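pinging the channel bc i need a second pair of eyes. not urgent but kinda urgent?? the chain im working w is below, pasted from the shared doc
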Amino acid sequence: MAVKSYGAHILRGGGAYKPRISSYSFQGLGEEGLKLLKKAGEIANMPVVTEIVNPEHLDLIIEYVDILQIGTRNSQNFELLKRVGQTSKPVILKRGMCMTIKEWLMSAEYILSEGNRNVILCERGVRTFETATRNTLDLSAILVLKEETHLPVIVDPSHATGYAKYVGAMAWAAVAAGADGIMIEVHPQPEKAFFDGPQSLNFKSFGEIMEKIHQLAQVIGRN
């Protein structure tokens, strides 16, 4: 309810099935997490999205969510891409951490070629030699994608930077560059989050960023 009050349109759960680098890290709540996500979406009257990591989970997940997400580590899992392409659910396809734009678009083609035309591309930064941020956010990808494809492009400054203090500036830059949407991680108490706490905003910070996004959009003639 808080994020919706500040202008959010879609609710993304942190992952009922979450791929983690460490096998000992929190990896989601499975079907129970899907039930909670759907309930939250119904209460807030918002469509919900969660990540799918295993083709065997697809039939279960589509019962609960409105949008599927393919994470960076599965962006070239071609069997998974083909399976979600056989559904009618919109798919957010995140860029692979070391993926060129051409490779990214080829992954999108796996979904499109199966009949699902509802693909949303999500720039989330690429892995470089830089360590000051979690990844290196490639805002120029927005411009290239707008020339190369008709698909909508959104940006995830939370995973790109890895630090909440940088999220606002990168979100504003993405809007100025022509992004169709922004994916921002929010938690009521980021210091207590099971994962990705350092990059998550609290409600107050999210509200402040959203206010400036609306102001910026008006200045550059966007809504």
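so The two ends are 22 Å apart (CA to CA). and The first strand starts at residue 11 and ends at 12. — does that match what u expected or am i reading it wrong
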